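Much of what follows relies on a compact textual record of a protein's fold. With that in mind, consider the following protein and its fold in token form.
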Amino acid sequence: MTLPILGLRRGSWLIGGLLLIAAAVAPFLMSAYDLNLLGRFLALSLTALGLVILWGEGGILSLGQGVFFGLGGYAIAMHLKLAALSGGDTMPDFMMWSGLTQLPGWWSLFANPLVAIAGVVVIPAAFGAAFSWLVFRRRIGGVYFALITQALALAFATLLISQQAYTGGFNGLTDYKTLFGVDLNSAGATRGLYWITLLLVALAFVGARLLLASRYGKILRATRDGANRVRFLGFDPAPYKVLAFTIAAALAGVSGALFTLHAGNVSPALVGVAPSIEMVIWVAVGGRTSLAGAIAGALLVNFAKDRISTVLPAFWLYGLGALFIIVVTVAPKGLAGMVEAFRNRPPRPPKPAAAPAPDLAAEPVRSPAP
């Protein structure tokens, strides 16, 4: 049986509710280190949810989501750096080391925490909308679009490294401790930030479900399966693709900001080509058309990365590449597809009943023939 609007089976609701309750009580059951990791990886799952909308439902493969992840992370980190200034300092230390004499005007905007939090969503969404409109109005898609977004990620990481006086260069933005006057390193703040992350992931999941179940979601899937047919029916695919890209960019921005708060730093190493490809792998492993699978893929791949890279640092990249190849060739629908196939497997036919053994006592006794 399915529930209206979201189209989920009653059993799926029950399992999801139990998982949500288990995640909510996790801070009381896990160590501080593992809780911090879980918070980081839940934050990353927001990027994965955006990729399901963009890639799984819209058929638009983006290899540059690290750009929007970084925009959100740097937006909140700039405020945190300014809030951490003490004494008579008027600018972060790396600016003084680079020879700047005063704080840049665009940096001063982020001194207001509300402006910084709004920038976490608005800046990635606005940049994503402008970029995607320029690309999709020219009907660029497929592998060409993927290559353009990959080049965008490379250019963004290079820009961050080269502009050390304004971005902190290769080291990025680090060494900040408070948000709204709350010590981010305290146990209470760690738990509160984890619950906020969990709440935002749950809201993003439900919102994405509602969006994909709406008329917009149907048209978006139609543009994926046959853009020319959609045009012949009187719809322009470009605005639907632009909206999908904008939503994915906004989710990536929120993801980057939450990850920055959990990790305590943001740097170009988190926004380049390699991280952007990893984001696609999370979704491929979990199932690119499944929102729940995307969350599971982000958690499983990143926990595996943490455990394996700790024991065998040189092996992880080979293992990640092998995992992607296996998923693409053996299970193209990811973990969600395997679960769905298991759930919909045909019932086994009943075994035929064995023939009863003859009752020798009931057989008539016949005399031998003469």
Observations:
- Strands lie at 178-179, 182-183.
- The chain is about 65% helix and 0% strand.
